[in-house]
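Justification of resources, computational component.

The compute hours requested in this renewal are based largely on the per-chain cost of generating structure records like the one below. Each record pairs the submitted sequence with a full structure-token output. That output is archived, and it is also reused by downstream analysis tasks.
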Amino acid sequence: MKIATYNVNGINGRLPVLLRWLDEAAPDIVCLQELKAPQDRFPQAAIEAAGYGAIWHGQSRWNGVAILARGCDPLETRRGLPGDPTDEQSRYLEAAVDGVLVGGLYLPNGNPRPGPRFDYKLRWFDRLEARMAELIGMDAPVVIAGDYNVMPNELDVHKPERWVDDALFAPEVRAAYARLLDQGWIDALRTLHPDERIYTFWHYFRGAFERDAGLRIDHHLLNPVAAKRLAGAGVDRFARAWEKTSDHAPVWITLD
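The structure output for this chain reads:
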């Protein structure tokens, strides 16, 4: 089973890119972020024509997450994180697909730091930590995938000294990510490629992609049951080189 995460940076504007990647990469499950589309503007017909069932949590102009499943409809199990009934941002979705529980997330950016946005990011992280503590011990594979907006360590960022004050590399945020690993989750890509400098995001400006001046902020975290089945992990950098593409590349794992 191939499970991917992809921040599409606007699903309708980049629909040709998404459909091309689905055709070439043929993932079984996909977590999408930054749909930037209200609920009624999700391109369901085009996704279904490509062979995927879908559930989605849209939001006008910003945010938005979806889960796609090849040849079937994901069975939604949760929409939004518990812990704050006033939070209306579309950032979390869970579904069961072929015996695997998949959570798709778009964690807040948090900039500028300090400030209200950074405080919201830390509160959202606390809620995610609580939810993942409930899921870690499931007797089934669980994969929580998405744009975490966190570079866990210096290997995950080009020129880390330039990011010391950024909300994606702040000590509080890296510590929050480390607490997820302390629960027993594994970072799939880093587990299989412990010493490689691998990026998943490159800014559009200053030739960042061409210079490989990137960040690794898109992650798959696996519970112990899923971790035992981990067979592969990688980044589809080729999609980042396409015309009118997202500033993220798709990231994938395979489970036996």
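The chain has a mean pLDDT of 98. The chain is about 25% helix and 25% strand.
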